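Justification of computing resources. Each target in the renewal requires a structure prediction run like the one illustrated here; the chain below, 209 residues long, is used simply to show the kind of job we budget for.
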Amino acid sequence: MSTAISNLGSGEIVTDSYLRSVLETSTNTREQCMNLINLAEANAISASQDLPLEIQLEISKLQKVLYSYLGQLRGLNRNALLKVRNTKQLTAEARQEIDKLHLQLQNLYYEERHLRGEIAACESYDHVYQQLPLIPVEYFLKKQPEHAEDDDKTLMFARIDHELAEREDLEQQRQELLQKKQTLISENQKRKDDLASLDQDLEKFIEIA
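Resulting structure tokens:
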């Protein structure tokens, strides 16, 4: 009765079909062993005693069944060992894959942190264009309203291009003024030379007179 209760409890706990078959075969083997022991005890079998033919046949029958169960247990045990080995291999491969993915994840994390640092450095970098004495945005948009809908980057490029064009125009005007200045200096010098020559002529005329 206790064996049946124990088997019932194990059957309720074990849900895997393969393990249930092992448990069932093990239980049958145990019961077959107990049947052999009970038969030997019931007939008071000793090593020197000749058994009746009927008892010998019964023992032989029980032994064959027992050997059959034992063979099944050996096969189940062998299959269990193979399954354990295969499971260990699969577990090791899965662990290696997990370790590989974890390493890749760590590398991505470090790369992300590095890129975030680079982005922060670029954003905080004091660019040269930020120091350019550009005209205010409001004044620029009044002169060129077609850039009113531009984003910050496009607007900055437009302001720099405008500043460049303005400076090139101013530089051209400066060069023209320098040329005019040089022309005036040359003319003034020529006039000074003419006046000096005239003074000399007057002095000579006065001396002669």
